[in-house]
Specification:
The structure is a homodimer. Chain A has 2 domains: 1-80, Multidrug-efflux Transporter Regulator, Chain: A, Domain 2; 82-132. Chain A is 71% helix and 3% strand. Chain A is built from 5 helices and 2 strands; from the N terminus they run ααββααα. Chain A starts with 6 loop residues before the first helix and ends with a helix. Chain B binds a DNA duplex through residues 6-8, 17-20, 22-23, 36, 38-41, 58, 63-65.
DNA sequence: GCTTGACTTAGAGTGCGCTCTAACTTTTAA
DNA sequence: TTAAAAGTTAGAGCGCACTCTAAGTCAAGC
């Protein structure tokens, strides 16, 4: 068996704060974490896997609302609703893919500007050479 | 000469709201827009180019604070400080590039999960075929 | 003359995702 | 035994980037 972890240990493992872990639990993203006899949370290996995946979703910009939907599906039908879950993730993938494209597109314009500044700098340098 | 545009027209052209345009002006991102005799804003072609570039920065996630720095450089030294401006944009480019990489990395995990769900669905389908 | 609609300002409100506080209990180490 | 560290809850607060409201001005068309 694997040792159950305290909230602080999970915070370190997942790079979320203890505040955020409690917040996620409060708003239904993490369900029913075991408690020690003193009421302290004890996280299982499964909990940690789940939290890490949740965090992947967050880091791709999925809103909490949508994560709640996903979490609900997983909780209600642990061994089913794979189609619905997949659909939700695929929609999200599409969103993120579009977002990445737009980032790249906008970044290209910034690149262009950087290039432009480089050329202006070069011109200034040449000018100062001539005048020296 | 090009016709000066009203705030509403600029909102349409830039896909920002009139509220946002005033907000950007208030916080120093857009400086000194001309006014008609009645006090209404009249935007020049240059203003619009500037606003569009600002928006590129925003769409790549640059914080307002940093845009303010950049705007300040441009305003204080319209024909100089190219090095500083370039540096600022290059730092930002680096940030965005890293962000894109991380998005792709996290998205790969989501993809993996989608794949996993597909396989589970397939198994369920086979099972129902056998049992039918 | 009067309505409609676009504009102005200062400042308040909103939604998101945390992040922190207060007041309290429990555990651990000196 | 006692101080420090870590846990608990409910609920308040924060930072960001808008977004909207209220109260007013102004110009054009009926």
């Amino acid at each position: 068996m694997t040792a159950a972890l305290t909230i602080k240990q999970v915070a370190e493992k997942t790079a979320l704060s203890v505040h955020t872990l409690r917040y996620y639990e409060r708003c239904g993203l993490i369900a029913s974490v075991d408690r020690a006899s003193n009421g302290h949370r004890r996280y299982s290996a499964d909990d940690i896997r789940w939290i890490k995946f949740l965090n992947r979703l967050r880091l791709t910009g999925m809103p909490i609302r949508q994560m709640q939907q996903y979490a609900k599906l997983v909780r209600q039908y642990p061994d089913a609703a794979f189609g619905d879950r997949r659909q939700l993730l695929e929609n999200h993938r599409e969103t993120v893919t579009r977002q990445i494209h737009q980032l790249q597109e906008n970044l290209a314009v910034v690149d262009w500007k950087i290039q432009h500044y480089s050329e202006l700098e070069d011109k200034l340098n040449e000018h100062s050479k001539i005048n020296s």
